[in-house]
Design a protein that fits this description.
alpha/beta, 13-stranded parallel beta sheet, 6-stranded mixed beta sheet, 8 helices
Length: 400
């Protein structure tokens, strides 16, 4: 079966993370949304995404299959409802299109826009796990992690744990993949499962409270403290104190410092002793820059920390205020708190932000990726270049 994940009108609620990826490539729980659907339905995944992303995230050309809302997280109930769809039937949750099955060649984007007039509409009666805004990725990460853990580990045996470790809670809620190394650490599954990916490493003195997932080839440094629900994607190095955060992949927070209720994109680096506030002194709800409305907006959350998009770096001792959002390819350093919104391709900090030269930023990205033996492809370079031009207005207030 061919599965096509489409972006609907709410895609821009997930900026800045989706500047460099379609919504279906977002990670929540253990896997990306696209990986969840491939596992659930057993098919190849394609995307209907913005034109500049198509060179990397290909739209599959097929004459029949399923279109699924990229914001939708698979649950047993929703999977069963989608499997029951017949050709030219569409599943809705109120006004949100969840999925449609088709059996003819069509312009998929046009078909999605014209659905009410061309398909039979079926209302979903049960609970639906549909992401509404970017903060849902950390506030609902625990739910997604529980779902993924059950799907990935059912019917499989965990690798044996070294005797130097202490497990608190149910051992069946701990799963260690082949090649993972864990020594002299505590793993508490009382509040949720712990998943350790293939060839990952948990160094001595680490304390983990689930729900938690550590991606393939990722590393927790000595003495790391993890509070769930937290996800660390593949190829990351993480240390210090982390609470309810999602790292997308190949990013580093290798030293001391606190990060909570936060999202960190791919190929980011947080300098030693970087700290991010996640709670205001007056305990009021946190406001955060909203790209869809181009202004600060109340998140509805008392706890809300840092959101950092791909390829952004910050220097040692950087301090981020509550609800700070940074764009793509920013380079942040210096004393004091940088602004609550650091636009893409910014250079500087609290005292001043200037434009980060496009070619210098791409060269930095290329060097970091090469350290992990990953190549910055021409297609990915083109995406970063497009993001630079798309975000020109965000940098229009910079002093020249």
């Amino acid at each position: 079966m061919h599965i096509i994940l489409f972006e609907d009108r709410k895609w821009n609620e997930f900026l800045p993370l989706v500047f460099t990826r379609p919504v279906g490539d977002l990670r929540i729980g253990i896997e990306k949304i696209s990986e969840k659907w491939s596992r659930a339905l057993g098919g190849a995944i394609g995307h209907i995404a913005r034109p500049y992303l198509k060179s990397v995230f290909t739209e599959v050309k097929v004459d029949k299959g399923l279109c699924i809302n990229a914001r939708l997280i698979p649950t047993p109930q929703i999977i069963a409802s989608i499997r029951q769809l017949r050709n030219d039937e569409a599943l809705f949750s109120k006004d949100d299109l969840l999925a449609v099955r088709f059996d003819r060649l069509m312009n998929l984007q046009h078909a999605i826009e014209q659905l009410p007039s061309v398909v039979k509409r079926i209302q979903c009666t049960g609970e639906v796990f549909l992401l509404e805004k970017i903060t849902d990725i950390f506030t609902r990460n625990g739910e997604a992690l529980q779902l993924d853990f059950a799907v990935i580990t059912t019917g499989r045996n965990s690798t044996a744990l070294h005797e130097s470790n202490l497990v608190i809670g149910a051992h069946e809620n701990l799963f260690v993949e082949e090649g993972a190394k864990i020594f002299a650490s505590t793993l508490n599954t009382s509040d949720g499962p712990i998943y350790i990916g293939k060839n990952a490493e948990v160094m001595e003195g680490t304390h983990i409270r689930g729900p938690f997932s550590l991606g393939e080839n990722s590393q927790l440094k000595m003495g790391t403290r993890i509070y769930g629900p937290t996800t660390i994607g593949p190829g990351c190095k993480v240390g210090g104190e982390v609470s309810n955060a999602v790292f997308y992949g190949f990013s580093n927070k290798a030293h001391d410092g606190f990060l909570g209720n936060a999202l960190v994109g791919e190929w980011c680096n947080l300098g030693a002793d970087t700290n991010s506030s996640n709670l205001k002194n007056n305990y009021s709800e946190v406001k955060m820059y909203n790209y869809a409305e181009r202004k600060e907006k109340n998140t509805g959350h008392t706890f809300c920390g840092l959101i950092m998009a791909d390829h952004t770096k910050c220097g040692i001792n950087t301090m981020f205020n509550t609800g700070t959002v940074t764009g793509v390819c920013a380079n942040i350093f210096g004393a004091g708190f940088p602004p609550g919104h650091v636009p893409s391709f910014s250079w500087g900090g609290a005292s001043r932000l200037v434009e980060h030269d496009l070619y210098t930023a791409i060269e930095t990205a290329q060097k970091m990726m090469a350290r992990r033996k990953v190549t910055l492809t021409p297609d990915m370079r083109a995406i970063l270049t497009e993001v630079y031009w798309l975000t020109t207005e965000d940098r229009s207030s910079f002093a020249t």
